[in-house]
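Cross-posting from the modeling subforum.

Setting up a comparison between two proteins and wanted a second pair of eyes on the formatting. Protein 1 (sequence, then structure tokens):
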Amino acid sequence: MSGKTKKKFRFSLKLAGVLIGIIAGAILIALVVAYFFEASREITEKGLRFGELDFSYRIAFILKKYGLSMLNGAGRSLLMALVGTAGGSVIGFVCGIIQTTPANNPVSKALLGVVKLILNIYVEVFRGTPMMVQAVFIFYGAKMLFGLNMEAFTAGLVVITINTGAYMAESVRGGIISVDNGQFEGAQSIGMNHFQTMLYVVLPQALRNIMPQISNNFIINIKDSCVLAVISVSELFFESKSAAGVYYSYFEVYTITMVMYLVMTVFFSRTLRFVEKLMDGPDNYELAANDLLVATSGSLSAPKVQKGKGDIRDGR
């Protein structure tokens, strides 16, 4: 079995495993949902009160009344995590590129030094303070200092994006530094400038190196979006808090909340890990059969010398 066939076979096995896992998870979720629907129907028919229910029936009661609002909150948590991680990654790449940019003359060196100082302050401030404090500071400070009336959801997106960007800046800088110096030298030897070297040679390799960190930040943002409840962003934790306060059923409500967070994080963690493996490429490489160098290797011969004409290898 050739290397290419083995790669396809391994990929098919992984894909089959993912599909089986998705189908099994869907079946399990369907069974759980069917059970709770049946329980909620029984509660309605018998007219049972909340205090008369056992634990599983309380879960069914809460899902019936507040399940949709909690799903909406989970959707907002995912949206904020996705937008914040994407925006933060862009900020991180810009900061990482600037921090690794060389200066060619005193003027550019001074200007670059000022920009790097500002970026270092930004990174230290947002890495050194809690996201909850940042949310309160930006949400209320934007109005007091700049007269901006941001909605809570918009302020939450800004907070997650800026916070993620501060962490990604150091990750990108480390990813760029991890690329071998020979890559930089090889790109410069064929006439590439710094921007071209970064775009076509360094960043594609650095992206694979920092992909686990991007995935990790996305998972963290899904969970840490709950701190935005402090500025009344209606994400999953905020909706759960509202539901728990009605019947004082904190244990039941937060059991549902914990399971919802766990499902989201496990699903996206496995999905992103699968994407990382796809980015790895094959373990070995086969030369293309129609490659000119492969086709001609070993088939070249010295040109024939006409009679009467000398050949330097013959000493004539």
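Protein 2 (same layout):
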Amino acid sequence: MNKTNRTTILLLIALLGIAGLCMDVRAEDAKSQSETTWLAAADTKVSIEPVGAKTASEPALKEWEKPVPIGLYLDYTLTTDYIWRGINLSEYRGEGREKLNHQLTAGINYDTGDFGTFDFGVWFEWYGANDNVQGAGAGNLQEVDYTFTWTYDLSKCMPSVPVELSIGWVGYDLPQLRGDGRFTNEYFIGLALDDQALFGENWFALNPTVTYYQDLDDVASVGQASWLEFGISHEFALADCPHMGTIPIIKDLTLTPSFAVTVDIGYIDSGTRIATNQYGLAVGYDLGQALNLPEQYGSISLTGFLNYSDAIADDSPNINLNDEFWGGFSVGWEW
């Protein structure tokens, strides 16, 4: 492991330690606040209201509610590389200084209530130096993906199982290719566990997920290639750390470290083996909350991220899988 990779991992460990300290202090603050609240309630209970005092509280302002169960979202991402399942699709021999990738996501979803949520999204990948990767005349639009997803909260029918089920389909359109190779597709099934709901509020949530992808077209020529991902992550709100809840900008920041293990089942090479270990760190800023943006106008977020992919299956004769380090930022709007 080279010096850059070691430094990255040590940085992630240090940030996890700082965030863990914030969690400990948050627990102590919650305990102190609970005791204070109990004492205040007891003091109020024995106090005597003066004659003519106002006993009814002022009516609270009515919260805004969506007029329709439809959601919209838009996201723009600028990143140093386009990494797909450990493979760098935006790097060529002699590249030198990084040529940036521009990615755009637009989507709509419909919440049916008891029958889950249906979502459709389109993702665009634009790379200014794509001619150097795919050949002259390939154009800068590298890829367009179409994703249909149905999600359902299993706790609605099984209260003791706080798991969200996702089933979907992804179509990959590669404009620079011709013939059958231009389009491929796959389906996926995912499970996301709300472990804090399962073990209680004092549990350190890891939000474990598992997602299985099955190729339906071009990979492995007979559509038998599969891909499996296991992931964990935890969001730390800096507002929960001592003395940070009132500091401008800082109070609206979150740190989210993540870790994922990916398993290749015929994508990179024949057989089944661990493909990569992926480490990530995202720093999010709730711009809408900082600006007191009315809820009816949606939410706006800014996110900076760093990722490192440690190639385990780096001895494949078919695909050159290497360690990758990349980062960028995104701007997102959701309604």
